[in-house]
C-alpha cells in the first residue's frame, strides 16, 4: 500500500532529495507517475543503499530537508528504525509521517484488529534450514484465542552462496512467497511438531493479496489485474487452491484464533472457498 496524505505531500515538495525505499515491499504505483505527482525526482534506494550507504542518505540532512519514502508505515520494518537511530546519533532532526500498513489494513479480512496477537514472519525454507520459531508465537496467540498475521518472505537483490563467497555482485531474480508455499510450509512444520496448532482441517486462515490496491488499468481483460484479493478457508482448503486464486504478490496470511466472534465468522466467511467447511470449523470456535 502506498498512500500519500496532504501532510506527506507537502513534506516531499519541501525536500531537496527524495529517496524511495524499494526492497521491503512492492510499490504498486509506477515511479514515473509518482515523480509527476510530487514534481520531484525520486532516488530508488535498494537494499545495498539502505543497509550500507545510510551516510549518503543522511548527507546534509542536518541543514536541508531529505525525505525517505516507504511502502506502508515507517515503523513497519526494523531497517527504517535503524536509519532513524543513525539520524539521531548525528543529531539530525527527524519528522515521522505515518501511513497505512498491512498491520492495520488486515482488518479488511473481517477479523477485529484488537483480536490480533503477535505478528510473525515466515521465511523461505531450504533443504537444510527450516526455522519454526513462528510456531511457538502462533501457539501463544492461539492460547488466548488471538489471530496471527503472518508476513511472507520477500527475496530482493539476494546473492547465491557461490556469488556471495566469490564477491560477485550478481543477484538472484526477486522472489515473493505465495500463499500455497506458505501453507505448505506451515503444514510441514505441523507434521513435525504435531501439537495441533496448525491442523489443516481445523485451522481457519485468510489469505490476503495486494491489500489496498486498485485495478492497474480500467477495462483490463486480464483475469489478474492486480486488485486486492481475499480468500478464506481451512489450511487444507487453501492448500489445494490453484496459485492463480490468490492473485499477484505481495501475499499475507492470517491464522484465525480459536475464539472467533460471530460477526468475524460471518464477515470473513463471505470469502470462503468452501462455505460448509468454514461454517463447520467457525461454529466450534464461536
Question: Can you characterise this structure?
Answer:
The structure is a single chain. With 286 residues, the protein is of the alpha/beta class. Helices cover 34% and strands 14% of the residues. The protein is built from 12 helices and 10 strands. The strands form 3 sheets. The protein has a 5-stranded mixed beta sheet. The protein has a 3-stranded parallel beta sheet with strand order 2-1-3. The chain has a two-stranded antiparallel sheet with strand order 6-7. Helix 7 links the parallel strand 4 and strand 5. The longest helix has 15 residues, at 179-193. It is globular.
Keywords:
five-stranded mixed β-sheet; globular; 286 residues; three-stranded parallel β-sheet; alpha/beta
